[in-house]
Amino acid sequence: MSDSLDPVDAGMPRYRSSAAARMVNIPVATLRVWERRYNVVGPTQAPSGHRLYSSQDVRRLVLIKQLVNKGHAIGMLARVETARLQDLVNEAEQTESMLSRGGAPAPAQPARAPRSNGAEPVTLLLVGSGAGVRWSEALRGIEGLKVVGSVDDSAVSELALQHVKADMVLADLGAVHMESVDWLSRMVRTVGARQMIVIYGFANTQVQEALRARAAVLRRSPLAPDEFRQTVLESVRAWRSVSHALLSLPDPAPAARFDSADLVALTAAMPKVACECPKHMAELITLLGQFEAYSADCESRQPADVALHAYLYRVAGHARALMEEGLATVAMAEGVAVPGRKMAS
Questions:
Q1: Considering all CA atoms of the chain, what is the largest pairwise distance in Å, rounded to the nearest integer?
Q2: Which CATH superfamily is domain 122-238 in?
Q3: Could you tell me if 91 and 51 are in contact, meaning their C-beta atoms sit under 8 angstroms apart?
Q4: Per-residue pLDDT tens for 25-57?
Q5: Which residue from 2, 51, 141, 261 has the highest number of Cβ atoms inside 10 Å of its Cβ?
Q6: Do the beta carbons of residue 169 and residue 127 sit within 8 Å?
Q7: Where do the domains of the chain lie?
């Protein structure tokens, strides 16, 4: 998609401290304290002396700010990987949603997993003055999509959404500012959505990056009806295509049990294995771990295919965990001590 960030491009440092702080909506002084005291991100220093942040840095800071606002300690969050931060945000939002309806929190769900089971329609909330009238014809006849409501961009509209639930939010706005980003984020949390499409007239680069950091699909208006329809179709197709597969997978895969040093030590300690199977297993574990991280990254920067990448992330994690178990079993058969495992007496 033309509005998606390339993985390499997303890691390029480009924003000064003041711009990054505005995108995350925190004071520059707070950002400096977070860096100096907790080392939450590692920006690059330009020859001019300015600290430069990438889109990946901004995304991480957005997640940390959301969790700090929910009561988490910044000192603990600083040591957590970005993918796990996203999981924590999703789990907290799910709990808040359940409590607001007076129920008990449900078991933790995988990051960004569709609520739809494949038979139910994907639900869509339209946001923006006149959005319902403007796009009703283009949305008519899209199989598997159900519009659950249409609200304007006033503060009163938030109150009307307390009992509305939607899988996706589509906002058609004019000028979008940083205040709009926070307002849209609150609306997405209120309805329990996991995907946001924003059609905007005017928005500076910092606002666009802040929206992308929140996994929004961006489209510039004026948008032709065919292009609008195609954007929604792609989102619905991605959402529905893997819904059964996501629901059939077990809970998210366990965290990696071996780092690169562990893998080297284990393979080196198994000289009695005549073939190179342990070495090949270690290589597969490394590659699967890399693909797992890559899929998690794509999940946030390729929002049109967010459900697909959520699925790939979980599949890679389970495959990596299975290979780790295999390597641990081979090592124990060779009498090699495995981190976290007790040898049979």
A1: 73
A2: Response regulator (3.40.50.2300)
A3: no
A4: 888 888 888 888 888 888 887 777 788 888 888
A5: 51
A6: yes
A7: 7-100, 122-238, 249-333
Q: What pTM did the predictor assign?
A: 0.50
Is 231 strand, coil or helix?
Answer: helix
* pLDDT at residue 198, rounded to an integer: 92
Domain 7-100 and domain 122-238 have a common topology: no
> Alpha carbon of 72 to those of 38, 64, 89, 241: distances in Å?
14, 9, 10, 35
The chain-wide mean pLDDT, for the chain, equals 76
Q: pLDDT value at position 303?
A: 47
Q: What are the helix (H) ranges across the chain?
A: 7-10, 17-24, 28-33, 55-69, 74-77, 82-100, 131-139, 155-159, 178-191, 205-213, 225-241, 243-248, 260-268, 277-301, 306-333
Could you tell me if 87 and 109 are in contact, meaning their C-beta atoms sit under 8 angstroms apart? no
Determine the topology of domain 7-100 in CATH.
Multidrug-efflux Transporter Regulator; Chain: A; Domain 2 (1.10.1660)
User: Model confidence at 3, in pLDDT bands (50, 70, 90)?
Assistant: very low
- State both tokens at 24: 């995350």
Which tens digits make up the pLDDT trace of 300-331?
A: 455 445 566 667 877 888 899 899 888 888 88
Return d(Cα 113, Cα 99) in angstroms, integer. 20
